[in-house]
Design a protein that fits this description.
Blueprint: E1 11-14, E2 19-22, E3 27-31, E4 52-57, E5 66-71, E6 78-84, E7 87-95, E8 113-132, E9 143-146, E10 152-156, E11 159-165, E12 177-184, E13 188-197, H1 208-224, H2 233-245, E14 247-248, E15 253-254, E16 277-278, H3 282-291, H4 295-309, E17 320-321, E18 332-333, E19 347-348, H5 360-370, H6 372-375, H7 381-397, H8 416-432, H9 442-459, E20 461-462, E21 467-468, H10 483-486, H11 495-508, E22 523-525, H12 526-538, H13 542-553, E23 565-567, E24 573-574, H14 580-594
Antiparallel strand pairs: 1-2, 2-3, 3-4, 4-8, 5-6, 6-7, 7-8, 8-12, 8-13, 9-10, 10-11, 11-13, 14-15, 16-17, 18-19, 20-21, 22-23, 23-24
Domain GH15-like: 231-591
Protein name: Glycoside hydrolase family 15 protein
Domain Trehalase-like N-terminal: 3-180
């Protein structure tokens, strides 16, 4: 049985509507063309038989074959060079931008067209094309029909795909299109694969060479509107581009990752769907976008959150929403898929939306506080009501247990990070009270804030081990407590915090700079390593922080992408990819190194 490539083998394509993953072997193994959290037409990532589109030299991966990849500057247009015994060829891949889209128009009306352009560089190389679409995560095998222009139409269920290859006459097979052709030095062949809905408008038709040039210009124009003046500028700019690529432009929501069900441990069952937008990530995302000088993105993301939350009563605000604000993201298993390297189940949807997560209001209100000057002295009615409602909800419920930042699926507990986020809600609400109208009650809120703080310091500190622990009454260390100085709950120089940072680094860290979330965590969690960088800066250990940062960024793949976690034994990337939080952590850590006193 064919084994899927390593997670780090994939490059990321985006049109800020959907995204695709293309491997070093030239195979596009993931594409949900309608939108990021829509249904996949290529899902080889999760099962070898669930659809792909390979374009590469015949015998790719064999003796004498070498691959080099890089993004075109300031873009998510990927250029892969295949060196073979017979010559070299470049394949440039992109998801097409709308014609004329510039700056913040990128992605709002993307045509849902995948562009692949082949260019001969030297010698004469025989190329192979294998197009095997399998809509609905591999449940459907489409009918294929030859087209008068030499293309092929694939149709099944709600999906229509049209593949065209300039100058090549493709022929439909029973369930796929296979074709071989030769490319000489200087020869250029453009291909476009267009998605359409069976009962909607027909798939777009583009000139692939013109569309590639247009798309490259759109990305580069977008980056020109953003500046960054801190340390590690190339890393920060690239991570900001990845975040833009994970942004669903129509709403402004940022997907946590492109994929579903890539495992935290090979063969394990912690495989979740991360193609939605988490309110928990809200403040971190806002901070990263602001650092990377993306103020318009922060405004649009904020408007999305306000609309998604809507009016609410006593029920907890969900930790995540669909990219257009959908609340019910009920989870189901795709039992027909074997999972990435036999890691089951494959999940579509995420039942974490049902959980009580007490930290969510703190992340949202912290973002409001961060943008308070940008938002103005008088908040709009919807924003004011949202802040008031979230604050009162926390005042009434902070003492309850929840599922914690890691979204455990066992018993609820009094997680320290959740309580600190409740403190953050009340503290920031007090600071925003003069913008919240007559219903604001800063004196009462301050009393609740102080009560939460006293409770955390009393119940969260474990004198026996000399550290703050993951939950009240627990002796289990948890890397989430590194958020205490990052949120300014407690200075990093406080003796208790210094002791906690040292304990977490010693007990949960590795010589390679990776940090696990808890003792039994099977892999290093990249965001936690970046939190540790920030904590080291705030304790005055600047050189150690920089050395750790530079070790951690070394775990990116050859085109600068991070998944969620790193295998401790092999250094292999694990979890969904690319992972927004990992790139957010990089941006925020780089800025902390640049500006140690930044808030």
């Amino acid at each position: 049985m064919e084994q899927q490539p390593a997670i780090s083998d994939y490059g990321f394509l985006s049109d800020s509507r959907s995204g695709a993953l293309v491997g070093k072997d030239g195979s596009i193994d993931w594409w949900c063309p309608h939108r990021f959290d829509g249904s996949a037409v290529f899902a080889r990532l999760l099962d070898p038989g669930a659809g792909h589109f390979r374009l590469a030299p015949v015998g790719v991966g064999g003796p004498g074959h070498r691959v080099e990849r890089a993004y075109l500057p300031d873009s998510l247009v990927l250029r892969t060079v295949h060196h073979t015994p017979h010559g070299s060829v470049a394949v440039v891949d992109a998801l097409a931008a709308e014609v004329g889209a510039r700056a913040h128009e990128l992605g709002k009306n993307s045509p849902a067209v995948l562009i692949r352009v082949v260019k001969g560089l030297s010698g004469r190389v025989r190329m192979g094309l294998d197009f095997a679409p399998r809509p609905e995560y591999g449940l459907l095998t489409p009918y294929l029909h030859d087209q008068p222009d030499g293309g092929v139409l694939a149709g099944a269920g709600p999906v229509v795909l049209v593949l065209r290859a300039g100058g090549l006459h493709l022929r439909a097979g029973t369930d796929r299109v296979t074709h071989e052709f030769e490319v000489s030095a200087g020869q250029v062949i453009g291909m476009d694969l267009a998605f359409g809905e069976a009962y909607g408008d027909p798939p777009a038709r583009l000139d692939p060479l013109a569309a590639l040039a247009e798309t490259t210009q759109a990305w580069q124009a977008f980056r020109e509107t953003h500046g960054y003046s801190g340390r590690y500028p190339e890393l920060v700019k690239h991570s900001a581009t990845v975040l833009t690529g994970l942004t669903y432009a129509r709403s402004g929501a940022v997907a946590a990752a492109l994929t579903s069900s890539l495992p935290e441990q090979i063969g394990g069952d912690r495989n979740y769907d991360y193609r939605y937008s988490w309110l928990r990530d809200f403040s971190l995302t806002m901070r990263a976008l602001w650092v990377a000088a993306c103020p318009e993105e922060t405004s649009r993301l904020f408007a999305w959150a306000t609309r998604s939350i809507g009016r609410f009563g006593d029920e907890p605000v969900p930790v995540l929403f669909g990219l257009e604000g959908e609340r019910d993201l009920s989870e189901h298993h795709c039992d027909h898929l074997r999972g990435y390297r036999d890691s089951r189940p494959v999940r579509i949807g995420n039942d974490a939306w049902r959980q009580r997560q007490l930290d969510v209001p703190g992340e949202v209100i912290s973002a409001v506080w961060r943008l308070r000057d940008y938002l103005g002295a008088n908040f709009e009615v919807e924003l004011r009501e949202m802040v008031l409602g979230l604050t009162e909800q926390v005042a009434a419920t902070w003492h309850l247990p929840d599922r914690g930042i890691w979204e455990t699926r066992d018993d609820e507990r009094h997680y320290l990070s959740s309580k600190v986020s409740c403190w953050l809600t009340m503290d920031r609400a007090v600071g925003l009270a003069d913008r919240l109208g007559d219903q604001a009650d800063p004196r009462r809120w301050a009393n609740v804030r102080d009560e939460i703080r006293e409770t955390v310091l009393r119940e969260g500190w474990n004198e026996r081990i000399g550290a703050f622990t993951g939950a009240f009454g627990s002796a289990e260390l948890d890397a989430s407590v590194l958020a205490l100085p990052v949120t300014h709950f407690l200075p990093a120089t406080d003796p208790r915090m210094r002791s906690t940072i040292a304990m977490v680094e010693r007990e949960l860290g590795t010589e390679a700079g990776l940090l696990r979330r808890w003792t039994a965590d099977p892999a290093g969690f990249l965001l936690c390593s970046f939190w540790l960088v920030e904590c080291l800066v705030m304790t005055g250990e600047q050189q150690r922080a920089e050395a750790l940062f530079e070790r951690v960024v070394g775990y990116a793949n050859d085109v600068g992408l991070f998944s969620e976690q790193i295998d401790l034994a092999t250094g292999m990337q694990l979890g969904n990819m690319p992972q927004a939080l990992s790139h957010i952590g990089l941006i925020n850590a780089a800025w902390r190194i640049t500006e140690p006193e930044s808030y």
